[in-house]
Task: structure prediction
Amino acid sequence: PDGALYSAIYNGVRTMPSYATQVKVEDRWAIVAYIRALQESQNISEEELAEYEVDIDALQAKASQAQAQADSVAAEREADQETMEASVSMGADVIAANACGTCHSEDGSAGIGPTWQGLFGSEAQVVTAEGETITVTKDEDYMRESIVEPSAKKPVDYAQAVMASYSYLSDVEIESIVLYLKNLEN
Result:
């Protein structure tokens, strides 16, 4: 429904921030209308397409070719992951590719998420998914869990923050991020 789109703009969703203070109410509704118009244009019937002299077979062939190429790249990437070893430099690349620095800093400055400075080996109060406050040591296991299931143990100061799950990353990529974060202490 339109209200869900409006809410996503107003409140934000996953890694998308809230635009409540940047986008006026009437502009939010205009964005919703634009999204709906785009959706409607994607659901046009073949009869309506015929009026515009669109070659459906050519479009479907092109889409199939693009999907086959994407599948091939995914298979190559999966094969590469099996032979790759985790590294600090790969961790830096994965962090950059996923824009982790948007929320986290390396220099101790405040952000949407906790800073990575002095992170490794430190103790912190966290709120579990069940709402219990506990003390944890931020070790390799905590880092892995925070990447894959960030809502499992949220730092008390960031209990209201929402971090997306990066469970789609390979084990090698996750291990590389952990190595990178650990290396920041050196």
User: Anything to note?
Assistant: The two ends are 50 Å apart (CA to CA). The mean pLDDT is 87. The beta strands are 123-128, 133-137, 153-155.
